[in-house]
């Protein structure tokens, strides 16, 4: 790693204004059994008061750190599409009013199947949304019920059809594997259905049992029948084979896309670049500072109506940022390059900083050095399967 004198010589991190914007809508129709996101069942929640407070945070944010131009917007949750059409129109108007969006902005909104009727989709289109990511998870109705989803497989198919009819062409769905009692055949069937939808992007995630979830409580009581590790690995390998065979590029460990449809917003995170983060529990990263917002709905509303609603703000030192750069960048198919490292860290050498880690991981067959189109490092086929071991080397 760097010495103290090296660290002192590096200019402040990310002296450029963020060009990516994340906004959190924390309301859901229900709480899924695996979900540890900052989300709350929408019934009875002060949604309009939340939107008031969120707009005030927008106003305070652009005053404190004026943006130049916003290239990507991502509205996550929760389920942002629980907003009714009037609330949706109001929310999107406030985004457009406070942030200078680029002409070619990628504007993504997460959606749950069954929450996007034609009126709401029209409001989304009119407000600038041009990409939708649907949380499908699986096309097996029994599995959907067992993980706490309230939609059925047909709802996904209908929601995609509605979105296409409304004029959306940049669509994605999430699928999960390693679910309780999930078989390889069930996954194969879901992948077949997913590919029949002919979408430009797919995100494929292995289940992680997180604290403060129903699944975690069941896991602690040994009542969560998860697939064996070898079975889960077979599921991931099947996903790579099927999506790759269908012409999708495995551009990031959990994401597949047709050329040109890679998630530009998420690539901001994988390049360890700065971004605005607004809303209850949202994270942001700018000017070498990471922040987390207050999480509870009413506490957030109370705070955001008066000030930037920070729960905590932390300085990211150079060594931490360098480690982050490696951990997130190596998730990408192209890996990390020496040029990008030097640009982000004042001309410093990637090899001089992480030489021992890189050499060890290459000896283990988990990383490979590449020279085209630029000198850098990327995961090998084995490294993709053992990514956490690689990323842990840079903590």
Automatic annotation (TrEMBL):
Keyword DNA damage among UniProt keywords: no
Keywords: 4Fe-4S, Chaperone, Cytoplasm, Heme, Iron, Iron-sulfur, Metal-binding, S-adenosyl-L-methionine
Tagged with keyword Metal-binding: yes
Coiled coil: none
PROSITE patterns (alphabetical): RADICAL_SAM
Span of domain Radical SAM core: 13-249
SUPFAM superfamilies noted in UniProt: Radical SAM enzymes (SSF102114)
Subcellular location: Cytoplasm
Predominant location category: cytoplasm
InterPro entries reported for this sequence: Aldolase_TIM, Coproporphyrinogen-III_oxidase, Elp3/MiaA/NifB-like_rSAM, HemN_C, HemW-like, rSAM, rSAM_sf
Function of the molecule: Probably acts as a heme chaperone, transferring heme to an unknown acceptor. Binds one molecule of heme per monomer, possibly covalently. Binds 1 [4Fe-4S] cluster. The cluster is coordinated with 3 cysteines and an exchangeable S-adenosyl-L-methionine.
Family under the similarity heading: Belongs to the anaerobic coproporphyrinogen-III oxidase family. HemW subfamily.
Name of the protein in its database record: Heme chaperone HemW
């Amino acid at each position: 790693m760097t010495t103290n004198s090296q660290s002192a010589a590096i200019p402040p991190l990310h002296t450029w204004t963020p060009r990516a914007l994340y906004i959190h809508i924390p309301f859901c129709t229900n709480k899924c059994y695996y979900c540890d996101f900052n989300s709350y069942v929408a019934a009875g929640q002060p949604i309009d008061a939340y939107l008031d407070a969120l707009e005030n945070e927008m106003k305070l944010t652009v005053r404190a750190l004026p943006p130049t131009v916003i290239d990507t917007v991502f509205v996550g949750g929760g389920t942002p599409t629980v907003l009714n059409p009037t609330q949706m129109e109001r929310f999107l108007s406030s985004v457009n009013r406070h942030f200078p969006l680029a002409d070619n902005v990628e504007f993504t909104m997460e959606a749950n199947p069954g929450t996007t009727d034609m009126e709401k989709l029209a409001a989304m289109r009119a407000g600038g949304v041009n990409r939708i990511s649907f949380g499908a998870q699986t096309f097996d109705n029994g599995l959907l019920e067992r993980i706490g989803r309230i939609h059925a497989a047909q709802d996904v198919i209908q929601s995609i059809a509605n979105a296409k009819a409304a004029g959306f062409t940049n669509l994605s769905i999430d699928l999960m594997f390693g679910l309780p009692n999930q078989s390889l055949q069930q996954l194969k069937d879901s992948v077949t259905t997913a590919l029949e939808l002919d979408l430009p992007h797919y995100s494929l995630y292995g289940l992680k049992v997180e604290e403060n979830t129903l699944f975690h409580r069941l896991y602690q009581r040994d009542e969560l029948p998860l697939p064996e590790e070898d079975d889960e690995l077979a599921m991931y390998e099947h996903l790579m084979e099927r999506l790759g065979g269908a012409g999708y590029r495995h551009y990031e460990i959990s994401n597949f896309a047709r050329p040109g449809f890679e998630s530009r917003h998420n690539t901001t995170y994988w390049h360890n670049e700065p971004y605005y983060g607004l809303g209850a529990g949202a994270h942001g990263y700018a000017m070498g500072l990471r922040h987390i917002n207050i999480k509870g709905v009413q506490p957030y509303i109370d705070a955001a109506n008066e000030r930037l609603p920070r729960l905590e703000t932390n300085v990211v030192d150079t060594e931490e940022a360098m480690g982050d750069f490696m951990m997130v960048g190596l998730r990408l198919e192209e890996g990390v390059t020496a040029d990008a490292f030097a640009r982000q860290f004042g001309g410093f050498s990637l090899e001089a900083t992480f030489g021992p880690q890189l050499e060890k991981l290459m000896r283990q067959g988990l990383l490979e050095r590449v020279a085209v189109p630029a000198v850098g490092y990327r995961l090998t086929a084995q490294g993709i399967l053992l990514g956490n071991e690689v990323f842990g080397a840079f903590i």
